[in-house]
Amino acid sequence: MTEEFELVEDAEGAPGDEFEEIDVSDTEADRIARRRDREFEQFRDRLKDADQFKVLDGAFDDATFAAIYKLVQDGYVGAFGGPISTGKEANVYEALDDDGGDVAVKIYRINASNFQQMREYLEGDPRFEGIRGDKKAVVLSWTQKEYSNLRRAAEAGVRVPEPVAVQRNVLVMELIGQEGDAAPTLADVDVENPETAFEVVREYMRRLYDAGLVHGDLSEYNLVVYDGELVVIDVGQAVTIHHNNHDEFLQRDCRNVANFFERQGADVDAEALYDYVVENANPRSDDDTDDPRTTVDEPADTESTDG
Ligand code: ATP
Ligand code: MN
User: Fold this and answer.
1) Sign of the CA dihedral with 75 first, then 81, 84, and 88 last
2) Which of 97, 143, 196, 307 is the most exposed place for a label (fewest CB within 10 A)?
3) What structural domains does the chain harbor?
4) Residue 168 · residue 49 · CB < 8 Å
5) How far is the CA of 71 from the centre of ligand 2 (A)?
6) 111 lines ligand 1 (CB under 6 A)
7) Under 8 Å CB-to-CB from 127, ≥6 apart: which residues?
8) Which tens digits make up the pLDDT trace of 38-71?
9) pTM above 0.90, yes or no
């Protein structure tokens, strides 16, 4: 795939560090919100009055409404349906795009976000080096990261919602499930064949790792089941293998996944899962010194003194 190749070519250090163009300083949505033209204000007031948004009184600021406005102008969102999920940090809505196709719209709430924790995931991810540290920048980077991670996971052959568009703190993606009937999570279904389902998740983990990504919050709650398929969701926190804590995150993912399938009666264990993922993947790693592309900046004082 040419796109994948380009990403590698653009890489500054190891593949996986490809530069992501993010401009979180002043987005088009911020400008729309500031301009306060009549059309935008009417749009915002209409949306605020709609039943789906009314319940969340005050949850979204003007710039968030402006981001939605921009997505509507660009044709990614036509009409909003009901909320699929109203979580602590983000709400997910069903919507129709301009052509009447189903999409899911995930809206991060800048103020409700646990941005300290978000920052820990962003720091150490070379894609986001040097982003400003304030709440807005962190949440916007996070949303952008979720979009990028979805794309990279899809390219790696992992079934995820196809990313459609990202605008400020709002992400548009494929709706998994049917209109009015979003797909249930793995936690909410009877798993008929836990061994097979486990093998699918294991393969997803291997492919992610192979693409240099660790999910970081993988469990039965972030896997949905639709049409006989398992779909990985909620990849905002996923980090590249260059993140200092990536191995810890991978081990935790393995524990969550193995524990779930063990409870379902499958004969699995976390360590074997971890070994499988690590041994059968070939992530483009920093230690691969044969590969000139993998040179990373080392601190100046790393010279060994012990010979
Ligand atoms: P929570 O804290 O509730 O887990 P979150 O911020 O982690 O929320 P997600 O896990 O991405 O957000 O989404 C919350 C819920 O919304 C999911 O459990 C799933 O039921 C639903 N959902 C998210 N994305 C989609 C999608 N693309 N298609 C269908 N349902 C989705
Ligand atoms: Mn989730």
Assistant:
1) positive
2) 307
3) 14-57+70-181 (3.30.200.20), 186-285 (1.10.510.10)
4) no
5) 23
6) no
7) 17, 18, 19, 20, 145, 148, 240
8) 999 999 999 988 888 876 666 788 999 999 999 9
9) no
Tell me how far apart the terminal alpha carbons of the chain are, to the nearest angstrom.
Answer: 45
Residues 137 and 140: their CA atoms lie apart, in Å, by: 5
* Segment 245-292, tens digit of pLDDT: 999 999 999 999 999 999 999 999 999 999 999 999 988 654 444 443
For residue 210, what are the contacts with CB-CB under 8 A and spacing of at least 6?
156, 281, 282, 283
Dist. CA 110–CA 116, nearest whole Å: 12
Name the residues annotated as catalytic.
217, 234
Q: In the numeric block, which tokens belong to residue 267?
A: 């004969």
Q: Is the C-beta atom of 90 inside 6 A of ligand 1?
A: yes
H-assigned helices in the chain: 2-10, 28-35, 38-49, 51-54, 62-73, 115-122, 135-155, 194-210, 246-263, 270-280
